[in-house]
Specification:
With 356 residues, this protein is an alpha/beta fold. It folds into 2 domains: 225 residues, Rossmann fold (3-Layer(aba) Sandwich), CATH 3.40.50.150; 85 residues, no CATH class. It is built from 13 helices and 11 strands. The strands form 3 sheets. The chain has a 6-stranded mixed beta sheet, with helices on both faces. The protein has a 3-stranded antiparallel beta sheet with strand order 9-8-11, with no helix packed on it. A two-stranded parallel sheet has the order 6-10. Bound molecules: S-adenosylmethionine. The site of S-adenosylmethionine has 20 residues, from helix 2.
């Protein structure tokens, strides 16, 4: 994607692999438009039927299915490859030597498309665990493979809490470019939205936990004055925090409870991941819960893609003096940040116990 080609086409073509419900697509659409480029998705793929339906209701196209069954030369030419790939390969990838050796893993499917189509850049997202798996060997193999394919690639771990979302979600982001230019990264210094900007009012009774569960929580945690999300860890300990712990697709039903009494609604879960309210919810509550837990924090994806565009094209014309995190906050509706509290301060707030 040379400056001339994107300027002459006025378009950025991308592919959305393991697309889920389209977290990456929301992000690149937002960023490309801030650069005056038309975001054009030329290929998407997800094996899950409910995700395909949700994606098609929101973006007007049904993603292709199993990527392992799609030949790389059937994937159209594109400028940017996006992939929030599942963590399935970790157990086996560590011992591998090179690209060919990654066959049978879903990372191999990303690598073979990069090798064949040679897009100008890519952004990959995965769980933080990837960084430490097999004493770093797994990530090393991935980075070596990307370098062997002709990419300058770097990675960073970011927490969604540092990008305006009240969700503690740490993920690894791997960015690569064919051009030998410095890779820019966002600062991650946006203030966290308060929970009140995310939570719905008049939540239907079906979201309330049973009296038994509520009493169980109350036996281990006192009600708090401010709104909190109660998180139950594996050991059964409860913490009440002014933000949510990471949404998880397979977590128990009552793993996160608002004020210790009710589950999050599908819309609240999508908001915690930074999805706009214009994103249509078409799946059942339990499917949407799984989709939101599997998805990515759109705000972080926006900031990482904005930094990638900055690396490729320089800063957009919005305001040349602003870092991209700040530009993104300017593009958000102002009201969201009315109750600004610095994220670091909020994180330290020990929820005070109610005297009522
Ligand atoms: C971690 S989620 C990514 C979600 C996505 N980033 C989003 O914003 O919703 C991984 C996705 O990979 C899909 N997947 C798993 N195996 C696949 C395969 N062989 N081919 C295509 N998609 C697959 C899953 O259905 C799941 O939606």
């Amino acid at each position: 994607m040379t400056t001339t080609s994107y300027q002459s086409r006025n378009q950025v073509r991308f592919i959305d692999l393991f697309c889920g419900i389209g977290g990456f697509r929301h992000a690149i659409t937002h960023v490309a438009r801030s650069y005056g480029l038309e975001p054009t998705c030329v290929f998407s793929s997800d094996i899950d039927k409910a995700c395909q339906e949700a994606y098609s209701s929101n973006f007007g196209e049904i993603p292709h299915g199993d990527i392992t069954k799609i030949k790389e030369d059937d994937v159209p030419a594109h400028d940017v490859l996006l992939a929030g790939f599942p963590c399935q390969p970790f157990s086996i990838i560590g011992q591998m030597r090179g690209f060919e050796d990654t066959r049978g893993t879903l990372f191999f499917d990303i690598a073979r498309i990069l090798s064949e189509k040679k897009p100008a850049a890519f952004v990959l997202e995965n769980v933080k665990l990837l960084a430490g798996h097999d004493k770093g060997q797994t990530l090393l193999k991935i980075m070596q493979t990307l370098a062997d394919l002709g990419y300058k690639a770097e990675y960073k771990v970011f927490n969604a809490l540092d990008f305006g979302l009240p969700q503690k979600r740490e993920r690894i982001w791997i960015v690569g470019m064919r051009a030998d230019k410095p890779i820019h990264w966002p600062e991650g210094a946006l203030p966290m939205k308060p929970l009140s900007a995310v939570l719905e009012k008049n939540v239907p009774s079906k979201f309330y936990a049973s009296e038994h569960i509520r009493n169980k929580r109350l036996s281990r945690m006192k009600p708090t004055k401010e709104t909190t999300i109660w998180h139950e860890n594996k050991a059964g300990n409860i913490s009440a925090l002014p933000y949510s712990c990471a949404l998880r697709a397979g977590a128990s039903y009552n793993y996160l409870l608002v004020n210790g009494e009710r589950r999050l609604t599908p819309r609240e879960m999508l908001r915690l991941q930074g999805f706009p309210d214009s994103h249509k919810i078409v799946s059942s509550d339990s499917q949407t819960r799984k989709q939101a837990g599997n998805s990515l924090p759109v705000n972080v994806a926006k900031a990482v893609i904005a930094s990638l565009f900055e690396s490729l094209f320089g800063v957009p014309t919005v305001d040349e003096n602003l870092a991209c995190d700040k530009q993104l906050s300017l593009l958000e509706p102002k009201s969201i940040y009315n109750e600004r509290t610095e994220t670091k301060k909020r994180r330290k707030i020990q929820a005070s116990v109610s005297t009522k």
